[in-house]
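Shipment paperwork, digital attachment
Item: protein structure file
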Amino acid sequence: MSMDKISNTALENKIFSSRLVLAFVFIFILTLVLISKLYNLQISNYDYYTEESLGNQMRLLPIASARGKIFDRNGKVIANNQLAYKLTLTPEKTNNIPETLLLLKQYDFINDKDIGIFNKNKKRYKKFHNIPLKHKLSEKQVAEFLVSNQFIGVDIEPYFHRIYPHNDSSVHVTGYISRMNKKDKAFYDKKNYLGTSFVGKTGIERQYETLLHGKNGKKQIERNVTGRVINTQIIQAAEKGTDLYLSIDLELQKKAESLLKGKRGAIVAIDTTNGEVLVMVSTPIYNPNWFVNGISHKNYKKLQISKDIPQLNRTIQGLYPPASTIKPMVALAGLEQGAINNQFTVFDRGYYQLPGVKRKFHNWDRNGHGDVNVIDAIARSNDVFFYDLANKMGIDNLHHGLKPFNFGEITGIDIPGEQGGILPSKAWKKINKDEPWYRGETLITGIGQGFMTASPLQLAVATAALANKGIIIQPKLLKSTQVSGGDIKNTNKSSQKQIPIKNIHNWEDVIEGMRQAIYTPKGTARRLNKNLRYTLAGKTGTAQVFGLDAEEQYIAANLEEHLRDHALFTGFAPIESPKIAIAVIVENAGSGSAKAAPLAKAVLDVYFNKRPVQ
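Attachment content:
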């Protein structure tokens, strides 16, 4: 019995010893694992885990930059910034986002549209970013929110709201800003635009978006274990956007807008010495402030259903038959190519006929003008002279003579959306219509009808080239810039090109014809010469709309009620030392001499009243 007990004790001791060894081995392995983990945490990956730890405590957030302002040439504000407040939501701080949004809607802080925009935008942000929910809160909403303050993760933040103090004035130049969409987010620099909600959509706001935007900054926030912000430090200050000074004269701009009120049309005036655009008006106009916070359904519908197409910038996108305003350039081409000289005359009996063709091409004055030379033909806008000249030249020589004036091409102005118009030729018709060219089409091209189209800006640029005796200047809207705290700096000069001149007297004869259009008893714009305190050369035009071949681009409204002629006028002043060139188009207004020319004079009067005439 005693032997069994001894034997069992030995066995137990043996088992205990083996278990003890296993326990020590196990503890040893655990210790090694622990040491390994500590080594990994404290030494190998120290930098990584320190950064992760700090990341829970410290966050980098973007600071939106203040947008640059836009001024006219005299420093009058066209686009400004106004302090406003926005509602933001931080996903990391909000336990139940759908429930929070619903509650905010119930309290009338946001609506379904705001919720939809938030859900679209939140993919752009990280969970610790303050995502905009609603911009430009009313004072009442700010007060109510601050009093209730029951929405965890929802805050009110100040920001600068874009405002256009002159409302609809100059909208087609300035353009407007609106909320960023998917296309904008893909186009602009993601890092610099993080935290940006609005970008330029049209006009100067779009053209110079990156200058106006500035540079976003960075701030570091420190939070405690409960997530409360206990410290904020600016790491990189935001850089305010560049202020832009445009060449536009706001006083002239408003005068032109008042003259076109209630009409569809355009007025463009440019400085003939440097290409600066002084007036760029397209009517109807509309209010850019509508778009900043998201246009209402009512206002959007108003713009969409309007037959007058208010959002169309007619100065660069409206393509019209230039009609008789093209005659000085046609005359010059004929003189320079030697098809005629200044002694050459045509007898006008009220119509013109091609040899062997029965169709009569009528003069605007069915009574006829008798013998007319090139100067008379410009002054009196004689169609028969130009039918004959066009026939002598042929369409391709006509095309060749007008091309240097930049017809059929964009001018390259610094604003988006410019259309180039059409300068027809045999090749153009074959490519675009797959038809041969007919001689009758050459005749009507010679008086600026048929397939030929041009924008008001193109007409102003071409008229300035006549005034400058062959210098084509690229038009521009940006005059100078100013970075925050810096000096105002002029932008680069406009590019210029010289039209080859064979005989300067040909240019002088054409200008004399335009002078006589104003100053002689038979001139089509003779009504303008009363009380002129500056010398003026000009050309009237009346463009037929009915029966024209409608192009894909906008030429003119061709609905039944819009079939009256367009009224046109182009001119420059003073004749001896040109400073300003102007082009006016009033849609479906009738006679250019009666409906367009007086508008040009009214704008030029304001221009010269502000400065001494040399």
